[in-house]
TrEMBL record, chain A:
It comes from the Bacteria. It holds the Pfam family DUF4249. This is DUF4249 family protein. It comes from Stygiobacter electus.
UniProtKB/TrEMBL annotation, chain B:
It comes from the Bacteria. This is TonB-dependent receptor. GO terms for biological process: siderophore transmembrane transport. One of its GO terms (molecular function) is siderophore uptake transmembrane transporter activity. The keyword Membrane applies.
Length: 296, 776
């Protein structure tokens, strides 16, 4: 009987209470690279930051690496340019006119910096897209539209996007930003669900910054048509839609870096094309922009 | 064909015959007429015996002329003894109807049979566990009795979480388990996104689980076989059962078809869509339904035919905001349909044949028109198979079989910016042969060979040898050994929310293989307890895991005229790997008396090496549970004390049954983030509160805390005339332990600082439920 009591007590002891998770420190210092170059445009807005440990609450500006050595080399001519840190924009740039980003050409980025006392060198290579990408404005969304406008049959007309394909480029991410986003401009009488003012405040950036990732487009085709559904639109007012013809580096990183937690909670690595202790991307892309407005 | 087979084996038998008789037949339950699986037929004078197979058939060939007492016994039934004159060189046919030994009318008190426990262990295949429906139903559960959740309490079988009924057997993944109902393969046996399994426990007659080292008659999977046999039906009178739980209503009815056979049917449906979903807007319209129908016909004394059907359907009609007519919504319907026709023929007393035509269909249909997503995911599997069991002599039995599987289907999907059309046709031709050699009563040796010819856009040919051995070490103990090779040509892609997709080996994905090595010891502890110990080592080659970054790796096969990618193949979808598992398992089991159940412990570890993951170094998968302890017990409270005092049991019309289940698992490995970083997705975006991302640490190097749970159920059984009414209550996770499933990280930039929220996502809390079962 004593043994039985002991067993029962042990079972009860093990079967109640709460699991205590003691997180281990697995932090590894890395340099975070946000580097985008565009043919025919100056090199600017290149951000170099540090990653930071879990359970810390740093200010974003404290993570900026201001003293990194950053250079970009044209691999066809081996001409290199050294970027300088701009304390106003908190980014790296190259202001001289002797270095130009061309279409369909390979460039290498090299970053040497320090993260939490560790010297880190990160390199990456990109090939810029070929000339040819542009939004066909007359066939794409533009002007002033009514919310969920309907056609003559009473069916909701999606927002059309038509663009010329850049040969060899299959990835076309689309950024849609509500420029007039505010609590007042939110479409509370939207077709989908009830959203309260508190929820708008809480998820404001989720509603304001929207995206579509168009991937594996036939890179040898001419024109691509895509319908953007109204689930992208949550505010009245003006919108900026930027479509990018992006390189392979950006395709791999942007398709994976946000989806690193699986449904059973496990984490996995995103696709990073940087060499060395770096996270992020060195990407080249062509951008084109359209604007439209949603009237009340 | 049948005549040819019969003639061939008769000639072979004749050539070796020497004034010998044989004894064969079927063993049935006297009350219901159901065939009894695993019943013992034993002739003590000559120490010869046989065990009835899954159809209740037994055969003892080549018995020297004489007059013998023959004992026929089965656990929970009265032993039947008959004196037989076997002097006339004849093939004696003896069909036996055993009477249930329902001591004082109580089924729960199961008496031991006259065959010793050690004999039953000796006759049982290596790594095999049998479960009866009563054992499945007596385990406290999450609302409903569930076969797969019961299996999760056995040594060597673990779940990933409370939220899934999927089973991981000796380190293998769920797609490496072969599920069969009445000989038919079942794909995706899951209801409610995996929360429950599709097997209706009221319809089950017997479940056989092979955790490894299974015989040559089984193939196509690397890890395990779960072979479910449904009730044939009562051949003597109509009987039924109805159950109401918090989740569903179910009913089973069976009865005779004149004097030629029987029919059995069951149906189960959830009712939340007709109740709570009508009153609470947040509850989606969802239900599942499943049903079985099985008819059994005695065509004549030598031929039996059964026709079996199983169907299940899950239906979800989701609307984001039911008050808004144009709100986002989708329909999601999935389910299985399986059917089989099975002919069992006795060609001669020592020759038993079994032939099937089976059809298995799985379909899921998803329609989310508002966002332009439509999916049709299908599998159709038409299989012809058969086997011949030849009971050649006291020392030799043979089995020959074939299987021809024709599978087609696959995923078709339309989504903005792409189309998937991965429907394919595949064929698998298999043959097998096995022989059991018993050189003397101390040895039982089985050799087997299975050959596969798998035909897709690439051909895979494999020969799998199988071997198992049992040796009577002493009066009370046996040792056992098993080894074999196994191949699999199908892979399952698990998906969040959506049901899994099955794909097959082709030119991009190779067939997988595994080798099993098992050694064990089993012992009868008195005539009530059985102790089993097994240790195993298992290898995996060319196993495939879903590529979590497939979206960046998947390559279109071609393009439509408007330059939209079309995906016809699985290139980039999987990551190839190898691995191994090893472990030790102990099982102490008691199947008779007022206290029944089992206590088990397993130690196991699995290591995988996958291309491109962890720099090619090995790691433990997420489902690894190094230590697992299970205690499952069903106690007849009226006779509990009587059993302890070794007194006879009392008859009562009202009875209390207590069910207990204690589970302990050591912590699972998990990958946690190592750091957080700033990254704004688009160059034209300003830094915003979502400009943060997490970066993982080394794969599965962190161990979550241990998992533990205690479940309890209490059933009050009332006998009233020919009715039995059993209301019950049960509590899952009685002490409300907060077991961690995983850790959730939320990061945002707010008020100029990074804010982090780290919280545990826990498994099920305390879950009380109640219901009632009525038998009539």
């Amino acid at each position: 009987m004593k043994r039985l009591t002991l067993i029962l007590l042990s079972i009860i002891m093990f079967s109640c209470g709460e699991s205590v998770v003691e997180l281990e420190d697995t932090f590894e210092p890395k340099l975070v690279i946000e580097a985008f170059i565009f043919p025919n445009e100056k090199i600017n807005n290149i951000k170099i930051t540090r990653n930071f440990p879990l359970n810390t609450t740093p200010k974003p500006q404290d993570l900026i690496v201001t003293d990194a050595k950053v250079s970009i080399t044209d691999l066809s001519t081996m001409k290199a340019c050294s970027l300088t840190f701009n304390p106003k924009t908190l980014t790296y740039e190259y202001n001289a006119n002797d270095f130009k980003i061309e279409f369909d050409r390979e460039y290498q980025l090299k970053v040497e910096g320090n993260s939490y006392g560790k010297n880190i060198v990160v390199t990456a290579t990109t090939k810029t897209p070929k000339k040819g990408f542009s939004i066909i404005k007359e066939k794409s969304v533009s002007g002033i539209l009514s919310y969920r406008q309907k056609d003559e049959n009473g069916l909701v007309k999606n927002l059309p996007l038509v663009f010329n394909i850049s040969k060899g480029t299959s990835f076309y991410p689309v950024s849609i930003v509500a420029l007039d986003a505010s609590e007042q401009n939110f479409i509370y009488d939207n077709a989908y669900r009830e959203v309260k003012k508190d929820d708008v405040i809480k998820d404001f950036d989720n509603y304001k910054y929207r995206q579509r990732l168009i991937f594996n487009v036939n890179s040898e085709g001419d024109v691509y048509e895509y319908d953007i559904t109204w689930t992208t639109i949550w505010f009245y007012g003006k919108y900026r839609m930027v479509v990018y013809a992006a390189d392979e580096n950006y395709r791999q990183f942007s398709l994976t870096y946000k989806n690193v937690q699986e449904f059973d909670g496990n984490f996995h690595e995103p696709k990073v094309t940087l060499q060395g202790d770096g996270i992020g991307v060195f990407a080249s892309m062509i951008a084109d922009t359209v604007y439209f407005s949603i009237k009340r | 064909m049948k005549k040819f087979i019969s003639l061939y084996f008769t000639i072979v038998s004749f050539l070796f015959a020497q004034n010998e008789s044989s004894l064969s037949g079927f063993i049935y339950d006297k009350t219901t007429g159901e065939a009894l699986i695993g019943a013992n037929v034993f002739i003590p004078n000559i120490n010869r015996g046989a065990v009835s197979n899954v159809f209740g058939f037994y055969s003892i060939p080549k018995i020297k002329s004489g007059i013998y007492n023959v004992n026929i016994s089965y656990v929970g039934y009265k032993t039947y003894t008959i004196k037989l004159d076997l002097r006339n060189d004849e093939d004696k046919r003896l069909n036996v109807y055993l009477e249930q030994d329902v001591i004082q009318g109580k089924e729960i008190i199961v008496k031991a049979d006259s065959i010793r426990v050690v004999e039953r262990l000796f006759n049982k295949p290596v790594s095999n566990i049998e479960l009866s429906p009563k054992q499945i139903q007596s385990v406290p559960r999450v609302i409903e009795a569930d076969l797969l959740r019961t299996l999760q309490t056995l040594p060597g079988i673990v779940p990933l979480s409370d939220f899934s009924s999927a089973i991981y057997v000796r380190g293998g993944t769920p797609d490496q388990n072969l599920f069969m109902i009445d000989g038919t393969d079942v794909y995706n046996p899951e209801h409610a996104f995996g929360l429950f399994s599709t097997f209706n426990t009221d319809a089950i007659k017997k479940v056989e689980v092979y955790k490894g080292g299974f015989g040559a008659e089984y193939g196509g999977r690397l890890s395990s076989v779960i072979d479910v046999t449904n009730n044939d039906g009562n051949r003597n009178f109509y009987e039924g059962k109805a159950s109401l739980s918090l989740l569903s209503l179910s009913s089973t009815i069976s009865g005779p078809i004149r004097n030629i056979g029987s029919i059995s049917g069951s149906i189960r449906r959830t009712y939340l869509d007709q109740t709570i979903a009508k009153w609470v807007d947040e509850v989606p319209d969802y239900y599942f339904i499943d049903g079985n129908l099985k008819a059994f016909f005695d065509l004549n004394n030598s031929n039996k035919l059964s026709v079996s059907y199983f169907g299940s359907k899950d239906n979800l009609n989701f609307v984001l905001d039911k008050k808004r007519p144009e709100s986002l919504g989708f329909d999601y319907i999935w389910g299985n349909q399986t059917g089989s026709i099975n002919l069992r023929s006795i060609f001669a007393s020592n020759l038993f044949g079994n032939f099937w035509i089976t059809f298995s269909h799985f379909n899921s249909f998803f329609d989310f028109d508002d966002v332009g997503v439509k999916e049709d995911n299908q599998i159709n599997d038409l299989t012809f198979k058969g086997n011949i069991q030849y009971f050649y002599s006291e020392n030799f039995n043979f089995k020959f079989g074939f299987e021809q599987k024709n599978a087609n289907g696959g995923l078709k999907q339309d989504f903005p910016g792409g189309k998937v059309d991965a429907s394919k046709s595949r064929k698998l031709f298999s043959f097998y042969s096995s022989s059991v050699w018993k050189p003397n009563p101390l040895w039982n040796i089985e050799f087997g060979l299975r050959g596969d010819y798998f035909f897709s856009d690439k051909i895979y040919k494999n020969l799998d040898p199988r071997f198992s051995l049992k040796y009577r070490l002493s009066e009370n103990a046996n040792i056992k050994l098993s080894a074999g090779s196994f191949h699999q040509y199908a892979n399952r892609i698990p998906r969040l929310f959506f049901v899994s997709i099955w794909t097959t080996a082709d030119s991009f994905v190779r067939g997988s293989s595994s080798n099993h090595f098992i050694f064990g010891y089993e012992r009868a502890l008195g005539e009530k307890f059985q102790l089993e110990f097994e240790t195993y080592y298992k290898t995996y080659k060319d196993i495939y895991s879903y590529n979590q970054n497939y979206v960046a790796d998947v390559v279109p096969s071609n393009y439509s005229n408007d330059n939209v990618p079309i995906y016809n193949n699985q290139k980039g979808l999987f990551t190839r790997g190898d691995g191994y598992s090893y472990g030790i398992e102990f099982l102490l089991r008691k199947e008779t008396g007022a206290i029944t159940g089992w206590l088990s412990y397993s130690f196991s570890n699995t290591y995988y090496t996958f291309d491109g993951i962890n720099q090619g170094k090995s790691f433990m998968p997420r489902h690894n549970r190094t230590h697992a302890i299970n205690l499952v017990s069903t106690i007849d409270l009226n006779n509990f004390i009587n059993e302890i005092k070794n007194q006879s049991f009392e008859k009562r019309d009202k009875q209390w049954i207590l069910g207990l289940n204690f589970t302990f698992f050591s912590g699972q490995p998990i990958t946690l983030p190592s750091s957080v970083y700033l990254f704004t997705q688009f160059p034209d975006w300003e830094q915003n509160k979502n400009s943060l991302a997490t970066y993982p640490s080394t794969i599965n190097t962190f161990n979550l805390p241990y998992y533990s749970r205690f479940d309890f159920s209490l059933t009050y059984e009332i006998d009233y005339d020919s009715w039995k009414i059993s209301p019950y209550i049960q509590v899952f996770n009685l002490f409300n332990r907060k077991n961690v499933w995983f850790i959730q990280y939320k990061n945002e930039i707010k008020d100029g600082r990074v804010k982090q929220k780290i919280e545990n996502v826990n498994m099920f809390p305390i879950l009380p439920s109640f219901g009632i079962t009525i038998k009539f």
